[in-house]
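Field guide to reading this record: the first block holds the primary sequence, the second block holds the structure written as discrete tokens, and the final block holds curator observations. Each block starts with its own label. This record concerns CAAX prenyl protease, catalogued under organism Chelydra serpentina.

BLOCK 1 — SEQUENCE
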Amino acid sequence: MLWAELPVEKRIFCSVLLFSWAVYLWEAFLARRQRKVYRTTTHVPWELGQIMDSETFEKSRLYQLDKSTFSFWSGLYSELEGTLILLCGGIPFLWNVSGQISGRAGFEPEYEIAQSLVFLLLATLFSAVTGLPWSLYNTFVIEEKHGFNQQFLAIRFLMTSCIALSAMFLIIDFSVPGFNTCVSLQVLVTIYADYIAPLFDKFIPLPEGELKQAIEMMAKSIDFPLTKVYVVEGSKRSSHSNAYFYGFFKNKRIVLFDTLLEDYSALNKEHPEGEDGEDDDTKSKVKNKKQGCKNEEVLAVLGHELGHWKLGHTIKNIVISQMNSFLCFFLFAVLIGQKELFAAFGFYETQPTLIGLMIVFQFIFSPYNEILSFCLTVLSRRFEFQADAFAKELGKAKDLYSALIKLNKDNLGFPVSDWIFSMWHYSHPPLLERLQALKDAKQD
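BLOCK 2 — STRUCTURE
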């Protein structure tokens, strides 16, 4: 009865807060289950006896445990910060400050675009400043402790600033639905890969040789319009391995991290195999710590990635994203006229378009976004199995099997997961499930 007597705007505000904390508590519950797995699984399970040695397993366990603990505290801080901002009227306060700044710059109150730009800039700076300590701790304490970080503090700060400013312009772009997907893809895929990423990493063409010829032959066999193959020196910032392709229409490019390639990995160069003066035991340890994949395994990984393209996964994701955008903006057009939504967040006299976007997309759509996120996670896992199956059809099952094991070791991935945590969070199937799916074809 008390709830029904509350004004509509109060019920909206309380519902937003309650749902936000419900999501946080659900996520904390899942994370707690997974941390229990990290703490209790101290020995290599028998299924992994031939896959992962005890030393790597323990390193992976400790790394994931540190990440999970950090995620708990950073998530708690983020939830408390968001709650305080809402309770203390932080959004209308920042909007008023933005109006004062734009007014001093000569813009009258009717120039809502100028005030919106100032608001976005201040909000982005606030987010960057409050999030920077957490980002720095994650990179220079946790990642460095476990041997992944290779960055300098100044470079990290510069990257954070660039990403924050990019996010600001993407939010501005978000206001036009038909234009949104096209421009966002251009910014994130083309401009970032061609102009921003080279500022932080060195991209060099893959030298002529067996690997490049094999990549070009595989691309040609499935009609993939490959134009260039690059190797990026990602090891200067991180020891994680990766590979991806980008480009539109007939201009596709493949990028391989040097950490993915056994012949390029900096770790292997620091410990050349067979170095004079080393005993057999030392040589054996160096060999076991080799990072990256052999050429056949790299081809298998690319076969998987190209499978996403050949099976239309990229296009399907774009179509889903575009349909979701039009649906959301249709609902936004219906809801934007509801003054109660603005009043719920402290806007009683004005209804700025930008604030309306924030309220609807960030708060009102939260339940829908949670459901959509879970559905996309399930779909992504399905796509991953299909891409693995495509690599199997190319005759790469055996090499993909060994490549997945190596990548899991190099990235200190923990192969044991709580089933609910995995189901809710993992966009890629757990390692054991992927290996089991490849096992029959590998034996054949």
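BLOCK 3 — OBSERVATIONS
The two ends are 67 Å apart (CA to CA).
DSSP finds 18 helices and four strands in the chain.
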